[in-house]
Design goal:
alpha+beta; eight-stranded antiparallel sheet; three-stranded antiparallel sheet; 15 strands
Amino acid sequence: MPDRQTKIDALLQAYSDPHAPGASVLVVKDGTTVVRRSYGQADLEAGIAATPRTNYRLASLTKQFTAMAILILSERGKLSLDDPISRFFPEFPPYGAGVTVRQLLTHTSGLPDYEDYMPEGLTVPLRDADVLRIVEQNPRPRFRPGAAYRYSNSGYSLLALVVQRASGKDFATFLHDEIFSPLGMTGSVAFENGTSTVSNRANGYSRNASGWIRTDQSMTSSVLGDGGVYTSIDDLVHWDQELASPHIIRAETLQQAFAPAVRTDLPGSVDYGFGWRISDYRGHHAVWHTGETIGFRNAILRFPEGRLTVMVLTNRNEGEPIDLAHRIADLYQKPRPGTP
């Protein structure tokens, strides 16, 4: 009978082509890394294979790091989760002045999506400060603050600026100094094109009729708070350890990130905390998130009670890593009685 690694290799067969963009997979069970494996290419043009040290753009998996930064600052008394954003952005128009930090974290702010109002003919990538200006200049709220849930990249971009204004450090530096460095995540970076670099970098790709083309950066790729972190499965081992047994933050503070705050609009019973989706999978309590941006698709799936974590990072603009993560998890835990 095939062992688990053989079965995982079979699940990742589509990523194993040595001439195609690839993937990295991490499985941690009971605090021990049981799978640490990479497939395919990190850089097609240079012929560089993906390895466990390859750093992928996380896209929306970044939101869990943004949320952690906010929780660290709240624990230090630098801000309150119920502070109105007008404390940090006194120039903000009246339509959103009552929005709170907590509502930004839980996608209940009602602020417009900056991607709907990007200037035409944009040639220089947006940054978080540009997002603030766009949101301020387009006072068309989706709904009254706190009245509903709607996933918001604008909210997490503004949270990066909140981190900066509350801490006195720019967002990338705060993540490095307060999260990445203390945890030993030496290759991780909140990346801005032209400002910082990424070691062991995976390039992102999309498929067209003639093969794979690089689609690594867009006009929103330098917006950090909603999706700008690059990291590897080797670094994410340390992140998973912190989430299971926190040291840079108190456990009771971190637990707020995993507490259901609002019901989402996703199919099924899915709640949202701070940077994490919360649901059951086959009878097991799960916290998870996906991340998709041009050239990258990723997923992190954690089962805190079962002490099981599955991470799938990919550098191609197709596939469903969360489905792969679920199928890998099935190899390590059985459905609870009464669940399919």
